Amino acid sequence: MLGRLLLLVCLLVPSVRPAAHTLHYAFTLVSNSAGQSYFVVAFVDDAQIGRYSSDTQKVEPLLDWMKERLEPQHWETMTSWGKHYQNCHTKDMGFFIDRFNNTYGDRGPFIYQVNFACEVHEDGGVSGHEAFAFNGNEFMFFDKGNMRFVPVRREAEVIAQVWNGQQFSAIKHKNHMEQDCVQWMALYLRYGKGRLEKKVQPTVKVFSRESDGATKLHCWVYGFYPRDVDVRWVRNGTEEDSEEHKEILPNPDGTYQIRITLTMQPADVDSYSCHVDHSSVNGTQIYKLPEPDKRGHVIVIACVAVVFIMAVAVVVAAVLKFKRR
Known about the structure:
Blueprint: H1 2-10, E1 21-32, E2 35-44, E3 47-53, E4 58-61, H2 64-69, H3 72-104, E5 110-120, E6 126-134, E7 137-143, E8 148-151, H4 157-164, H5 169-192, E9 203-211, E10 214-224, E11 230-235, E12 238-240, E13 249-250, E14 256-264, E15 272-277, E16 285-288, H6 295-324
Antiparallel strand pairs: 1-2, 1-5, 2-3, 3-4, 5-6, 6-7, 7-8, 9-10, 10-14, 11-12, 11-15, 13-14, 15-16
Keywords: Cell membrane, Disulfide bond, Glycoprotein, Membrane, Signal, Transmembrane, Transmembrane helix
Transmembrane segments: 298-320
InterPro entries: Ig-like_dom (IPR007110), Ig-like_dom_sf (IPR036179), Ig-like_fold (IPR013783), Ig/MHC_CS (IPR003006), Ig_C1-set (IPR003597), MHC_class-I_related (IPR050208), MHC_I-like_Ag-recog (IPR011161), MHC_I-like_Ag-recog_sf (IPR037055)
């Protein structure tokens, strides 16, 4: 459940224009009768670079080059930030439970999440977003342009009013997004250039399977990086809706995979194709189902012919033997 909620928060506020690079933090606080647990996951673009948890009380770099090239002092600073936000979000949790208890009850578990990111664009411009969610539902976001916290649920109006009334609160969030976050991202990109900007072309397999009396088409795209990819089934130039949710999954080696499935009529097999768009290749790559293996048909025909010839030979031999008698 936590994985799904984390994914939901990551998608709360999409970027309006494509970013050259993004530093993204996902904060999660879980509170129940057994206590609280807190963790933070950090990404540069699609690469997970570090994590913090209430169990370890420290930030851990997850990439070898980060452990080797960045000074220990940097990780001590990041650990201080992790502890700071753990304390802040723990205080927020109690405040939110009082406001949301009519919606979610007072027994828990309660999950508070913050999605925070800064983005540097191709033209050098800086943007970012910050969204807040409770038990998987977004309730407020930070409008950096207008320097205000904006509620998206009625229950959050009091929370936004309180936060907007706190002196320097909006300024602190804006500076953290435009200054601290951007400086950290520049540091990671400087030491990790080439590793963070790598592109791996996807491998694509298209095949069909019979299931419950129907033919299902499968387009499996795997081994690609970065994560963003567009995969779709097209029939005679028209995109077809897949009956299954298209979820991009991580591979152990840091690449990604996705598979989309479509039910079709067997007679129309030649009219379907899988279209794949990825930044590692130029233009849309189109993949059709492989031609049926005709060797099997040849073997069957040959076997039938041999059996037929043998049968004729047996009949002829029997007739000749009968005439001799």
